[in-house]
Design goal:
With 62 residues, the chain is α+β, with helices and mostly antiparallel strands. The chain has a domain at 21-62. It has helices at 2-5, 41-46, 51-60; strands spanning 27-31, 34-39. The chain has a two-stranded antiparallel sheet with strand order 1-2. A hairpin with a 2-residue loop joins strand 1 and strand 2 (34-39). The longest helix has 10 residues, at 51-60.
Length: 62
C-alpha cells in the first residue's frame, strides 16, 4: 500500500491498468485517507451527495 500513501489530494488510483472506474466491480472513494463511499460505479454516480458522482458530473461538463 505504499503506492497509495504517496498520493496527493485529488489523485485517483486505478489499480488495474487499462481499465476505467466503470469496469471495476467495486469502487472505493477515499477522502483524506478515510473511506468515504464504496460500491459499484453506477451506484455511486447515481447516489445523492456522492463525491464520485460530483467528480463525474464535473468531468462530463469539460
Amino acid at each position: 500500500m505504499s503506492y497509495l500513501s504517496g498520493m496527493r489530494p485529488g489523485e485517483v488510483a486505478n489499480l488495474r491498468r487499462g481499465c476505467r472506474a466503470e469496469c471495476h466491480d467495486r469502487v472505493i472513494v477515499l477522502d483524506q485517507g478515510t473511506v468515504r463511499e464504496q460500491g459499484s460505479f453506477d451506484e455511486l454516480v447515481a447516489a445523492d451527495g456522492s463525491l464520485l458522482g460530483e467528480l463525474y458530473a464535473l468531468a462530463q461538463d469539460r
